Hints:
Layout: H1 2-11, H2 14-36, H3 52-61, H4 63-88, H5 95-110, H6 112-121, H7 125-152, H8 160-186, H9 188-193, H10 198-225
Helix pairs in contact: 1-5, 2-4, 2-5, 4-6, 4-7, 5-7, 6-7, 7-8, 8-10
Amino acid sequence: MSGDRASDELGAGGGREVERLIYFSDAVMAIAITLLVIELRIPEALDQTATDAELRSALGDLGQSFLSVMLSFMVIAVWWIGHNRLYRTIARTDGLLLLLNFVFLGAIAFIPFPTTLIGRFVNLPSAVMLYAATNFVAGSAILAMRWHADRRGFIGVESPLERRRRMVAAALAPLVFALSIPIAAVDATTGALSWILMVPATLAVRWWFARAMRREAAATAEADGS
């Protein structure tokens, strides 16, 4: 009992504590996105005497790095949206929720490094596997935060179906990244391309739960009418 009380005193501060956590998390994610651009550097061999053809060639050589930065920008943006949606519904925090949030932020802060690797070595399994593992940690932390907050009653009242929908949606990204790791061990390019599966998987989950919610609403209306 005393341990639970100490944990609550450490982490629970109502809305103000949640706001502080959100501001801090937003700052870390903003810095991580900014650091991605550092990888885009014009080769030092180019100087003011370089021709336009040489400049175009140098920019072309940066094409893979451009793609990796764009990918990671979108990935961090998706993590920010998921984090924002979660904490809009959370009324308070505790010690474990703070710890899980720091695990999430640690993965986010680390993303620029594997982004640099896949920008240069996307054809090598270790680079793709490290990138996938980093995002698996981030996604798993988001999922664990949602599960813990729901179990502790920190999340506002939701229907059981809506709670399941949010849990399944949160599980999609870490699942896809986890599955891509053994695929990348066999073929790095295929492993990276497998991340695209998140798009149809997300659409399928939304479609299935939309149907389930319509059926539930129709059943409720029918019960009320009778």
